[in-house]
Amino acid sequence: MAAAPVSPDSYLSRLASVACTLDAPLLASVPVAVAVKGYIHNVNFAEASVYLPERNADKTLEATVGYAVQEAGHIAKMNLLLEEGEKLLASLYSYRSCSRAIPQVQSNEQANRLEMYNQTFDVLQPEVNKMRKFMAFRDAATAGVTDVFANMVPEIRDKEFFPSGPFLSTCARMLDMFVSMDAMKNIKGSMNNDFSMYRRAVQSSQRELSEDETIMQHKLYSFLANQDQYSSELKASLAKLPPQAEEIIVDMIDLCADSIEMDVYLAPKTRHTYYRAMAFGLFLLDRDTPEHDITRRKKFKLERFGKLFKACPVVPLFADQYVFLSTIYGKAPHLANTKWEETEEPAKTNLARGYSLLTYPEMRQEYTEYMALLKRTLNLNRPTANGPLSVQQNATIYAVVLQGVKHLVTLTTRVIEQSAWKYANPVNPQVVPNIPADSLSYELAVRFNYSAEEKRVLIEYTAMIKNLTSMMLNLDRAALVAINQHIFHETQTFIKETIAELALHGTKKKRVAGLIMKHLHDVLFDGPPLDDEILGGKKKDLKAAMADTTEAARLNPMTPTQMNFLRAVLNLTLNDRAKGMKGGLMREKDFKDSQVHDARIFVDGMSMYLSMMDIEGTVRELSNLSDLWLKEFYLELSKKVQFPISMSLPWILTEHILESNDPEMMQYLFYPFEMYNDSASRALYQLRSKFLYDELAAEVSLCFDQLIFKISQKIFHHYKKAAACMVLAPDLKSEGSIAQMDLALNAYDAILKQRNYQLLGRSLNIPELIAQMMNTYLRKSIDIAISRYEASDLTYIMDLDTLLRTVQTTHQLLSERMTLDPFESMLSEVDESISLSATNGRIISHTVAELLIDVAPNFCYNNVTARFLRGPVVFTPEVSRHSFPKAPFIYLYGSKPLSVAFTAQNGLYKNFLGVQHFGALKRWVGRNGIPAIIAELAKHVDSKIKDTIAAYIGVIAKGTPQTMKLPLFEYGTAGTFEYFSAHLRPLILYQALKSEVLQAFREVGNAVLVVKMFEDALAMDDTFLEVQTSGFVPRPADVKATNYHKLKDFDHIFGSGGYATPFSTWVEQNERSFAPAPPIPLLGGFLNHLRGTLDSVADEWQAEGHLENPRAFFRVWSALQFTFCVPSVGEGRLVRELFGEGISWAGCTFIYLLNQHDVYTAFDFNNHVLSVQRADRKASHLSFGFGQYGGSSLGHGDKNALAAATAAAAAAAAAASASTTSPSDGTSPVTTLSPLSATIAITAAGLRPDIAQFLESAAFYQNVNEEVFAMLQGMEAVA
Question: Residue limits of the CYRIA/CYRIB Rac1 binding domain (predicted)?
Fold first, then answer.
């Protein structure tokens, strides 16, 4: 279809020549992806004058379009007032009193009083200027609204026009501004205080004021002193207008009611504006005169509004300020006693339930379903290589995004309204217990006004709002393009089809409405105008012509001015109140009902287009929860400078999450802090208050520090318990309090994945911040473990082991989720093993100290159980240790049940030192630490040999016979015993024998045994490591350690060369895998050092092993050993119970190192007595060394082994009181006797009990000596 020529005077030419002041072009030819921020809201609707028809157009068309343009100008004027009012409202809300901070003049005689008054004047002058602006805005806003209404009255009265929806909506916003300004000014008593101080300063400083300034001060004083200045001035001004002005208010009230009843609004702020505008409109309509009694109006149904007010009596006003609607409409003369509020308690309870979020459990399911729908829609509707999205795909994306916007509106509205209800209905401290009587009003409204369940639901709502907001703000470019293209397509399709059909229909009927529709089409259609030939033809010709019109794929839709113009003209033409739509008996309507219905559906959907064009700004406005933090209203009410963070709702919700111990709630931890982000944005960009932002930033800094501290503590506590459960023995995990622990290792993963959390414009790495606290907690745990070890004996090494293994496991679990310092570095740092001032760490130092001052002098070694047991008698001063430090469970095992369980587990190892203890020592002092311990033991042994034993060797040698031969066997057992006892009587009676001599030998022997146990622990570890690594770490075969190599020659015997595994191969594999690793020669080196020490004192001792040398060590040791086997030496206890087997290990080691083993074996006194006993006919049948004749062969204190031996002996005695077996070598039979029979037997053999006890001890030590010599010889053979 050919385009019609454009006349130079046509509206199209004028439209092209006008410089558009909007931020976006009216008809853009350049594709844009998204609407520019601010381009929707900064709209000057007066530019709609470019859409006026041509000069020679129809008068009705000109009047209709002219009215629409005039109305757009009124909207623009009110928008300017609203913009200014929003700024002043923000300034008024954030107003703080200055007078409280200004020092007062104390008396008229004060010397600097004039200077103080002048400075007060200078400080308060800017604040007074703000007050003047508030008063000036009252006058300007009143005059502006009155002027708009006055201009609209002739149009309504003479031309029968009526206001459009956008105009009425703007009127509602304007009237609501009056309500907000009044309410805000009424509560700001600080302005009165500042102005009073300002007037006092002016009067006292004797300033000369002009007449205008004086009048202004009087007006300002009256303005501040009287309440409701805005509403009363507006009502008085509107009362002077003709009655048609009231019709505008009535239409506005009806529009607000319709919008609320049908949910035709977008922002929560709009909903609350409509409520307040309705209440204020009723106040404006009702006057004192009877003819203006609103209750008598027949066409005005008050019950409709009363029902709405009763359902929502409280609405938010501004930030934390709320308003009862009854306080607005209750000022009307005839509505003061109207009962539109619930008075009965059940009704009030139901009303509170309606405000509560707890009554909407379905919102979570709807949210989940919508999020799935949105993701699915965006994934299925993406541009492909074949081309852009189709029209249907664009419509689908638009519908789904619009659904999300409405869902966001619902969520935010319910949160904001519940907050307003809480503010308006604080908790009663006299009804609810545990609330301090001096609680502030803000505490009663916020801190104590939310139950635990309400806090939980509010947190979930906040999370849903912010998650949905994030999804909306992160829509990709394709989705934004689809939204804009859909709006453009819908508007152009409506204009091209529906408007064209209406124009065709009106033209055929010869109605002016047809010209109006044609004008709309030609102005707004992105294509050629309608041809007169087409309008004079048939409908099918129109469709054919429109089908030929190709629609450009524009990415930006119509401008706000175009949309407003389209809605206004359609409203004037298609509304039931329009002239052409009234109809009658003689005249039909301009358009059919079906045609009007389609147009109205489009207009209703069009109300969302502006918001959808600026989807980013819309979503940010809808998701703003700053009202939940802002508190200026309550600060003014409480006359406080600031509230503590315990009253701040975001922190209250955060603390609830932290204290709930609910893993599901942990994922919402950072959502309450989004309220701070919203509040900061509002403080800077809307309230424009720097001090408010500074206060918020300070609170956020404090709260965030507290949050990181508390969440770090909870995370550490959680993983500490999990690690402790892993370390705890399995049989102890079945305890009820431990088995019920639900320690999900991923409970805090949602928090630890926040590596780019945005807070007040800063990007925070949450895992990194938590990791710093974790490093501190881990070091503290290590320090407490070591400190408790330093305050305990060596048996606490098992507790140290479990504590450090728990810390190590905790570190391992945490390291999987964040970056921590290496555990080895932490341990070395806390242990001070890398300090320049200390050669050994704290663990090694305390271990050495305990070995030297407690284990070596006070413990008794038992060879049967391979354990050190604490001796029954202490011969050294009591060991002084630090007081045992107390510590919270978080630094131990995480909880009291786990601590109790570990105490029970480690309690099994408290009464002895054994393989387990030395294994734990090896684990934590390390291979490099063990040589340091052995070196200290070697120094201690050197000291004992040189300073103590060397001195007593000479004394003992002098106190024993210089020549003493072994008695003949004819002496008998008793005679031989008495022979040696008589010759060694001085030594037996020697007072310092036990406390000095035997004690010194015990310390040396225990030191040797400690080294041996360290070597055994290392050998066991090396063997285990060898088996583990044999498959991939080759080890050269040690032919000295195994005889397997001799078996390789069996291949030719067995003929196994053709087997799957030849015999030689099998031998090599077994040798490589199972041959024990050679032990680390710790004991060998220690003994070599000991040999050197003995060689250095040998000359002093004169201990050469000659038979005639009375000072030979084997003779000295033989005398000592006979002496401590004599029962009287122990004074009621066996010497082996007092000193253990350490003394034998010391003596035998000395003998072996001095090469006196053979001569000692031949000439030992005890061996000779035992040999005589075995040759004695009366006593040869007795077997000693098994605890039957006056003593246990087991060490004192090893109750388990002692009980086992006693039980075995009792069982044997019960089977046969005296069973005799004949040895194969022909010696006398060995008799096993019951205790009673043993007593009878030794009496029959002519032996006294003391001799029997001696023989028992001598046989016991003979066995020990043989084992020691065998071990030393075997070690030398291996070496």
Answer: 73-214
